[in-house]
Amino acid sequence: MPENATPHPPVAADPARQGDQIETLAREAEELRKKLDQERQKLNDIPIQQAAERLEPMGNLGIKQRRILKGHAGKVLCMDWSLDKRHIVSSSQDGKVIVWDGFTTNKEHALTMPTTWVMACAYSPSSQMIACGGLDNKCSVVPLSFEEDIIQKKRSVATHTSYMSCCTFLRSDNLLLTGSGDSTCAIWDVESGQMIQNFHGHTGDVFSLDIPKCDTGNTFISAGADKHSLVWDIRSGQCVQSFEGHEADINSVRFHPNGDAFATGSDDATCRLFDLRADRQVCVYEKESILFPVNGVDFSLSGRILFAGYGDYRVGVWDSLKCVRHSVLYGHENRISCLRTSPDGTAICSASWDCTIRIWA
Amino acid sequence: MNRPRNVPPAVVGTAYNDYLQPEVPTEMERVQAAVDQLRVESKLKREKVSTVSKDLIKFCEEHKKEDVMLNGALNEQNNPYQDKKNCTIV
Q1: Which residue ranges does the record annotate as region Disordered (chain A) (predicted)?
Q2: Closest CA to B10 of A122, A210, A141, A156
Q3: What is the pLDDT of residues A51-75, one digit of tens each?
């Protein structure tokens, strides 16, 4: 901002009067907050596990490690599935981005980014492009082709004022949704690099965001260091709902396939289920023996299973309705950083600080 | 979260930073924004937890047949990630 610009209207002449106004507003905020809590509490009638009591328990799932993708020399920080259910993009702390064929475990592309800590990567809906970024504060896109050195075609689309922590394409190859350590989210036009909408409301770093699987609405969710999950109206840029409950950073947020609920994973070692229509937390997935952060969560195709990747190297398999842990998947040799179900729900993929990516089915 | 302990200053993009730096809101603006937000949220229509639970259960039940991970071993042949079978039944 130039020094001679006046960003705000002149401050009211009487500072005492302004102090009164602030106090009145603060009191109103306090009352509204109390009323909201009461409203939400009133609707908390029967817990979901009680409603699910008569359901058959989940049987033997037979989920095993089926593939291991080796090639990163640093901690893998993020991964994303292609909609072809076969290709995977991953990014690591040493600045590498790799595109894999999940069936054959072959590397199809490997890029070296100019900065380390590539914290986010995403596959475009057409599978012809990837987006990635992190500590460079940017989100760059790279078209995938076998004809030339694709790094030459890398183009930066988004720029934040702090690291870019998460990104996803929105409906088409031409819109990118990003979240950042600058506590904002934004939508960008891939072609022009113009910011189309930004989202202010978080009071801490944004770590994760998600859009509903059947994206007919105009909302997305984001969560992060302020322990809150926020629901946004894409068109207006307005925060429409805010969810609390977690006692530490939220690292991961994923919509339930029904589009009305979402799960979160947090440094407080719990996963939680929230529902947009109930406007509150519905369930906590926790165990006394689990003390490590949850870094990635995702649902199975029907929403019955909630998978959670933990800092204790394990994948927890939860019954999302009965709210009990069904089983544990062992394999990784360091903390899990990211976990995602494949687009057709046939497999899950986990990325880890052990430099590997594993596919489980 | 996957973030380094001490985030070093951006190597690139600093030229944009001054330009993009959001204005720091005044105390007044901050409180006003909080009240506006709460007013929006207090107008929301809400459902009971029992209602949304019933809908969640219904959704899971309706889609359980398509859920390959849930059907596990029954669905091996539909899963492209299954291990190749080396043994045959005699």
Answers
A1: 1-20
A2: A156
A3: 999 999 999 999 999 999 999 999 9
